[in-house]
Write a structure and sequence with these properties.
The protein is α/β, with parallel strands linked by helices. The chain is built from 16 helices and twelve strands. Among the domains are: 76 residues, no CATH class; 181 residues, Alpha-Beta Horseshoe (Leucine-rich repeat, LRR (right-handed beta-alpha superhelix)). The chain has a seven-stranded mixed β-sheet, covered by helices on one side. It has a three-stranded antiparallel β-sheet with strand order 1-2-3, with no helix packed on it. Keywords: Leucine-rich repeat, Repeat.
């Protein structure tokens, strides 16, 4: 029989292995194969100890290679290092690091972080940022909102989006989620009067902005009227604004400058490159109503190189920019098509649009219209300072501070009002 010949061949070829008795079922009956002669005997199997694996058998544990995420989660619990002798050593991670990694992987499911310790929240934010959780379209926004609601300026106190109009268009909702910003640089973004981000500037979430740079944004008088309406009517919005840059917006005229008079706390203003008709009248008006004096030298407050992004989300903004640049890479293929059109004698007008970048306009020296308040320190200093006279400048500042303190104390002595004086003031 074919099965008996094949079985006997198998037995003789592997006779050196202790395979034990072999049973074959034929016609519903169980037969035992005799290892010596290869014959078949119809006997009942005897109970004998049987080992599943031989002594030389070895096992290798293989993870499911398709599920990389599950494998990473299993091996992340250990830290593998090498000793001086070259031996592999592993140690278990701390419970805090394991919990931090788990929460950062699921950071979008957090209900609230209000009242949570700031030190632990910063580590959690960094762990989620390293996993690029805030770059995801929907879950990233939800996670970022939980941090900004609880920690405000700690997440981001200064945001520089200068010349980053693509980041603004792609991550507008994320940018609007930042609260308690003190500095916002939107220079050279060509936003216009109707942009949603400019409307967001009037909201209560950005009432803390003290430094606002809107250079070269195609703004007009209508945009300034809309931006200053909460301050003029409700005394809210950008009421704490100290520095404002509106340069290189030629559609802003004398009428638009009139809306800026509601910013009573304004210390520095730049309206160079605007469409003013009567410059002398505007200079006198700013000086008379809000105390701003025309500066003959460029002010350091409008040096855009000093503005930068600061806070926990500094790297997050850089990740957004890198993601936008990666998305723009396929457009490089347009150059070959444009070159082909030129080769065949055709002109392509889109080439200008593709290769064009927003170039920051330069204002001429004679058109410098920067203003400052004389009684405010560190605002009217020129952009370029001499190093040799730095000690003398510090001494002058100390003397000025001492004189101001003396004047303030003397005024307090002379301005002590009696009860009758207060009753008289309350009648007005």
């Amino acid at each position: 029989q074919s099965w008996s010949r094949g079985m006997s061949y198998c037995l003789h070829s592997e006779s050196h292995l202790d395979t034990g008795p072999i049973y074959v079922r034929e016609n519903g009956k169980l037969h035992m194969v005799n290892q010596g002669a290869g014959s078949v005997q119809n006997v009942t199997p005897k109970a004998r100890p049987f080992s599943l694996f031989s002594r030389s058998f070895s096992v290798e544990l293989c993870m499911n290679r398709e599920d990389d995420r599950a494998r990473r989660q299993r091996t992340d619990h250990f830290i593998f290092t090498y000793t001086k002798e070259g031996n592999l050593r592993y140690s278990a991670k701390s419970l805090f690091s394991l919990v931090l990694a788990y929460i950062s992987d699921n950071v979008d499911h957090i209900d609230s972080l209000i009242g949570f310790p700031e030190q632990i929240a910063e580590k959690l934010f960094s762990a989620a940022e390293a996993r690029q959780k805030f770059t995801e379209p929907v879950t990233g926004l939800r996670a970022l909102q939980k941090f900004t609601e609880a920690y405000g300026s700690l997440v981001l106190c200064s945001l520089c989006l200068r010349n980053r109009y693509l980041v603004i268009s792609e991550k507008l909702e994320e940018i609007k989620s930042f609260r308690e910003l003190t500095c916002l640089d939107l220079s050279c973004c060509k936003l216009g009067d109707e942009h949603e981000l400019l409307e967001h500037l009037t909201k209560e979430a950005l009432s803390s902005v003290k430094r606002l740079l809107l250079k070269d944004n195609s703004l007009s008088d209508a945009g300034l009227r809309r931006m200053t309406a909460p301050v003029r009517v409700l005394k809210k919005g950008l009421e704490n604004l100290l520095v404002l840059d509106l340069s290189c917006n030629p559609k802003i005229t004398d009428v638009g400058i009139g809306y800026l008079l509601s910013f009573k706390k304004l210390n520095c203003l730049d309206i160079s490159g605007t469409g003013l008709k009567d410059v002398d009248a505007v200079i006198k008006r700013l000086q008379m109503q809000i105390g701003l004096v025309h500066s003959k030298v460029p002010l350091k407050e409008f040096d855009h190189s000093n503005c930068k992004t600061e806070g926990w989300a500094e790297q997050t903004v850089l990740q957004w920019e890198q993601a936008v640049m990666e998305a723009m890479k396929p457009q490089d293929n347009l150059r070959s098509r444009v070159a082909a059109l030129h080769f065949y004698g055709k002109t392509h007008r889109i080439e200008e649009v593709v290769n064009r970048t927003l170039v920051e306009p330069e204002t001429k020296t004679f058109g410098n219209l920067q203003f400052y308040k004389e009684n405010v320190e560190n605002c009217h200093l020129p952009l370029k300072k001499e190093v040799a006279g730095s000690h003398e400048l510090k001494n002058n500042k100390k003397r000025a501070l001492a004189e101001q303190e003396r004047e303030r104390t003397s005024k307090q002595k002379h301005l002590c009002l009696t009860v009758e004086d207060w009753d008289l003031l309350n009648t007005y």
